[in-house]
Automatic annotation (TrEMBL), chains A, B, C, D:
This protein's name: Inositol 2-dehydrogenase
Membrane-traversing stretches: none
PANTHER family referenced in this protein's UniProt entry, alphabetically: INOSITOL 2-DEHYDROGENASE, PTHR43593
Record-linked Gene3D superfamilies: Dihydrodipicolinate Reductase, domain 2, NAD(P)-binding Rossmann-like Domain
């Protein structure tokens, strides 16, 4: 009988707590062995209801316990580099929440460290690749049944932003998902980014220019426009419209029951990313666990993390200049193979 | 050059006023020559803005003016019989708002009078036959491309009812449209009606049992259920779902812009029959005018008026007994031909 | 640490195999311990890939192994009675696929046996109670925010039927789900059933009259019409439209990506019940496992199985007579409490 | 009684023939008096079924007949300038199909000529202002109920293009409608245009780069992206999505009956602009006739024609350079007033 993975979750904040609950109640083949948080009380609270799980203040202590065979990193992005290097040294399966690291240079260091190891240990948490809509759209692209994909129109709308959400975070935390999805759908790298700041909403916090218009191009010339609008008030919405040579595809519409009541018909707007992508997170983590038990990864690789970090850097520069900014990547190491994304597949 | 029809509109109430406006501003080939209303002041008000139109208290006076070559009857139903007989005597084109007359016996008298005349002069105001949705559904039935039509599910919902709206009017004024549409879509006569009074809304006026469930069968066995719900609060809605051997068709959904606003997405509910069927009324009257200028009718005939009156009688009886009540018709006079409905075609 | 349930699955046919896969790969807190099938080879094939699971030809052998702490019954309905009595003797948690048993008399014997035991051990496999659409509609009923529920319109369409599917199975295997859902949504027992056989499709196998129209009434007078159409060719579709005093709700529409291609726009029709209700099955079994680990049930009870069996009996009689047939139930034992369905809750 | 307009239609090609039919059969208050076409046989064929209408080879002859009191110009755009100046000399109501003229310099000459006349005689044929969807969206903008309008996403898709359709015509004949609609919706002038040529379809004729991505900005900074895709194969589609401070609005979705047939559900794609905008053309011409009978115009003015011509010039330049190109306008003459578009209103 294959042993279950014994997972250390690093970071017990919003995403970490969500993943702990997921591993403990919904994911087959894995158990929470440890929760690591610099705030030890928060770690202790997180394991209180989980028999056999321990709380630690550092990852090192967790690893030393001898009870950890895999790690899920859910700290803020600036702490990822150290955690990743530490986990790579242990040569254990790693699921790292996006971004891999906050910038292309540090992301490249991770890629290099993994190369030295000689096998893919890191899966990056771009969960949209596991969302049914993107999976189906990707399938349509690869089937060729509608001809070549020519353009994408992406909308990313949040009702509002947490305190301290900056213009740069619009790119690094939100548009980063579009960067990954564009690469996933087209199977191509992104070559340039342009950002236009137009009319701004009065509902954004001071210092934030919202919405913004991002125009992206891929290697073969696929143009992608993104409306990133993070104080859109009405609800949460992520949709993509794809123009092919022979047809148009739309994904991401709000579903659920439709109600006719006085004067209006319709349904409920999705309130947030948990409702929109909750199932995708479950499938993502299950895919990681299944692959990890075979010593593989089951989703986006460190290369995907590096490539999107380079896009984000170009995006932030474009945001400032208003000009088209080229995205330049290092040569792709052989370890990451050619570009053949399976369902949420590693590259 | 063909002379325009000079139309006398009898009845200047809600429907009459609507038709006067339609003839005066939107219909080619016809002009309002006279408005007849027992309330002469109402008639005078109606013609005030129409050059060349006169007001009268009786139809006889209008006809005697020598300026009338066609008539549109828009009085309450119980006044139709006299007005129809008077117009038939003049042998002029007649557009008669539904119902033809309020009961089968009087409707049959009209059929007999028209037969004596020897040509179809009466078109009945079942405007749904000119509605794009019903026309397209009828086309699908007749094309046979989805196989045989097997069942229909009809919903007829009003926000509320005018004072004095009785249980019998639920059948005679509302379900009567479904009777006509079922005959139009199936090309068959109706053979039985059953009415079930279930749980009632608390929003209906005293004495009215609302909603009601009507189960109808046609000659070949097509079963039709109708939800008639006339105090449905939220808005106006008329939809039909058709089950064919090889597919399902839905018509009548609310359209228009969709709006996402805080917490809800959707569109506006249709507020009333004017918005839902306004275009159908225009097409209906235009069709009548075009046919009348060729001495024909361009829509449902007196036979259709008679057959639906017989359905209504059976419906009201079924409403009281809760049993299945057979619909029995006189033999169809040759004048009305076989059953081949064209777009909104006469039969 | 709570021990996982060790489940014996009885019956390794279509539904059984589906549940074995579910328990083995997706459900937390339970493991497949045994597969029982009179065809021992089929049982052996089913456990071949499951470490620690054994195959048996009879349930008795499985119980005697000492490794079974819960049972899932997925045999054809006529074998349920014996399997249920045997499992009740063991006093272990039971998940029994619908129907509880094929008729009201045998279902009542099960209810009596469970009463003797003195606690609810049986959960019946009405998985629609765990479907997101029905859960949300049930929530709207109970919230009262749209006023009283007045009518339901249900459509149940299959592309075709397996060999040997009879008229009675239309009621016992298909409409039975509507009986349960009506009881779940209204929180009321069903009082009468009427079945009308109208125009039949040419696509049904000989001896089957399809579609049929079922008209159902609940204790407070809620009327429900059901189109049951099991050779509908185009695909699988289960929808419900609910008319409330203050609004209308629709659930069950086909979702997924919409595609515009030459001449047509739209999406894919659901191909079968696995796609439509696959997630509901997962939630159902998980709910049963979670409750079983607390010695409770987490869904429809034996009483629900008995009450729907009585509805089916009335339905089959109504199918033959064309008349309204009353549904008469024994007095409800105290064990099953009053009618307060929670999400998919037991009653 | 007001005399009907006696209209000379100049140009009996596709659009001209359509307008002749419209004036002859559907528009109240106007009649076709003359058809002018350099191909006299085509003009004769067009009037053959219209009592009282004459055919001419030149507009001058039509005017000299003394039977013409208004003119509708439907020739190719490069012939508009001469026809407009000739009609302005007559001081009669003019409905001029878009574009006003093919470039900003000649359009300005028309504006100057009309100013000398001292009253607005020219209405330009931007029929989208009369489309129900744009009217409703414009109403939402002006009501302010969703806050400020921030971004627009426009899609303009044709199944294919007629022979000789050039890259410049993509802007001048297709995007010109978006230029007008943006001005209509925002009530602002356009300040810059950028065009990006990305991945091209293999279905476009040689020499045409299709689709193209147009990024437009208005005076207050509203950003608008346009996908112009004129060989989109599947059908005709014009949609707009508007992002407001407090909500999102979508117009232009395909409507009509939805059909479930083997494997797919959905409706018919709109085949062409006649089906999508036929009703808008009727309303547009009726609005012009009604206004003309009062010596006014009832839609977009010569100023609107000039302003969109300037946008087109910038668009074609942007198409070639790939850079953002500013749109510069002459000062607006007092005759055209301030920017207060009513329903399809003149400015």
């Amino acid at each position: 009988m294959v042993e279950n993975l014994r997972v250390a979750v690093i970071g017990a904040g919003r995403m970490g707590a969500d993943h702990i609950q997921r591993l403990h109640t919904r994911i087959h083949g894995a158990e929470v062995a440890a929760v690591v948080d610099i705030d030890l009380d928060r770690a202790k609270a997180a394991v209180a209801h989980i028999p056999g799980a321990q709380a630690y203040a550092t990852a090192a202590e967790a690893y030393e316990s001898g009870d950890v065979t895999a790690v899920l990193i859910a700290t803020p992005g600036f702490l990822h580099e150290v955690a990743l290097l530490e986990a790579l040294e242990r040569d254990i399966p790693i699921l790292c929440e996006k971004p891999l690291t906050p910038d292309a240079a540090s992301a490249w260091k991770i890629v290099e460290a993994e190369q030295k190891l000689g096998r893919k240990r890191i899966q990056v948490g771009f969960m949209r690749r596991f969302d049914q809509g993107y999976v189906q759209l990707g399938g349509l692209v690869r089937s060729g049944e509608l001809g070549e994909l020519l353009m994408l129109h992406c909308r990313h709308r949040n009702p509002d932003t947490p305190p301290g959400f900056t213009n740069e975070m619009l790119i690094n935390d939100s548009v980063v998902h579009e960067f990954d999805v564009i690469r996933f759908l087209t199977g191509e790298e992104i070559t340039s980014v342009q950002v236009r700041l137009g009319k701004a909403t009065s509902k954004a916090p001071s210092g934030q220019h919202d919405p913004q218009h991002v125009l992206i191009e891929t290697a073969s010339g696929v143009l992608v426009d993104v409306e990133i609008f993070v104080n859109a008030q009405f609800g949460y919405q992520v949709t993509t419209e794809a123009a092919f040579e022979d047809g148009i595809v739309n994904i991401g519409a709000d579903g659920g029951p439709t109600v006719h009541r006085a004067g209006r018909w319709g349904g409920e707007v999705t309130p947030g990313f948990e409702a929109r992508f909750g199932a995708a997170y479950d499938v993502e983590v299950q895919s990681w666990v299944d692959a990890a038990l075979r010593n593989e990864i089951g989703g986006p690789s460190a290369w995907d993390g590096y490539a999107t970090a380079a896009c984000c850097e170009a995006g932030v520069e474009a945001q400032k200049s208003g000009e088209k900014v080229a995205v330049v990547l290092n040569e792709k190491p052989a370890l990451y193979g050619s570009f053949e994304p399976a369902q949420g597949g590693a590259q």
